[in-house]
Amino acid sequence: MSGINVYAHYTSEEDYSDLDYSGACERLASAIACKTIDQGDGTDSAPFERLHALVLSSYPHIMAASSFEEVGRNLLITCPGTEPSLPCVLLLAHQDVVPVVPGTEKDWLHDAFAGELDETFIWGRGALDIKDMLMGELEALEYLLARGERPRRTVILAFGADEETSSTGATELAGLIKERGVRADWLLDEGTTTIINGAMWGAAGHVLTDVCISQKGYLDLRLDAHGEGGHSSNPFGGTSLEHLCVAIARIAESRPTPKLTPIVEDTFRTLAPYITEEPLHTLVQDVHGNAEKIAALAATRRDLYPFVVTTMAVDMLQGGSAAPNVMPGDASATINFRLLPGTTADDVLAWVERAAQGTGVTATLVHTTPAGRMDSTDGPGYAEVAEALGHYYGNVDVVPSFVCGGTDAIRYEAVCDSILRVIPFRPTPEEEATGVHGVNERISRRTYAQGIRVLVRLLERTIL
Ligand SMILES: [Zn+2]
């Protein structure tokens, strides 16, 4: 936890004083009360339908101006601009939330799905992930339309219903947008929410927040070793487990060297004037020229490691024998890799197969989502998003980065040139640490209002 007092960085909180912030908080609480959990075929649709009804009834100006489509449980709201030739803007969020972790129910101070709010907080599952963004985007657009604005650009709000599980909704919505021949200049989706201490990047005393312009890929590989079993008095040639362990060791030893992607080069370049720590300070005077050295150094630090490495985590082992004097039959291991942008599943498979050669162990791809395209800080929307964040979070520098987990946004690459993953809300580190996917998820009224201001300013400067 960074321990940064985020409120000390809030600025211009007096903006848009005619916006109905307390109504917005109540609407967010009502959205939280819809228990929108995706469970595949067994999903209860009723809470999603209640959320749709809430959206329909809460934003009269948007609804008067827009088409409202339910695509299965997913939502697509299109608010046409007055200049249809301009590329549109896409605002994403997901409707679904994760369940309460079994056994933690009693730790919640307020029922996770009661939609309660008090003087300070709006409580419940989804307050930070990510109904704040879903409802906040609607609040911002509604405010502008209610003020009498007529946006030149078309705004599309696309709310998938299964981001936490399979992301099929996002795939479907993006497919529909593509089918219609619509292109977006840029899109906003979930990503970073934190203000972090620049010490992580060697810039102590500086605080920053990032706009993520890519995301890491995901890959599960299974390694299989065949074993005949039998008495362990003559393990000629080694057991299946032994072969498996040798293969894993060779794979781990032959890891690719750490690498600076163009995005992380950009992060260091942006921060260079503030990096005081040696040897980084000297190295970042020429980031590109020193890329290998910087990557090697970053890989020795826990916080930076995932940003410069395609990580591998050996998470599952199966097939040990039940007795010490009996050799195991077939054995397998599953390794989870997180791919740096620019690295593919095929690259990893080739590395693994090369390393495991001669061990008799085979590798099979179980599941993968590719890494995101690497977008540019010069791309559409980036400067405007950075400006809006900078306007409301003072003394905070905005740097480019990528998301180490996955989001729905990657499904939209074919319809959007610039995918910006950043959440406009900046909750306190305490809220963030326990709330997201944990217990007592909540957002303060103050945090919610400030994020809505970011969205209003962003839209004011891009769609009008
Ligand atoms: Zn989320």
TrEMBL record:
Residues 213-356 form the Peptidase M20 dimerisation domain. Gene3D superfamilies: 1.10.150.900, 3.30.70.360, Zn peptidases. Keywords: Hydrolase, Metal-binding, Protease, Zinc. It comes from the Bacteria. The keyword Hydrolase applies. One of its GO terms (molecular function) is metal ion binding. One of its GO terms (biological process) is proteolysis. Belongs to the peptidase M20A family. This is Peptidase M20. It comes from Tractidigestivibacter scatoligenes (Olsenella scatoligenes).
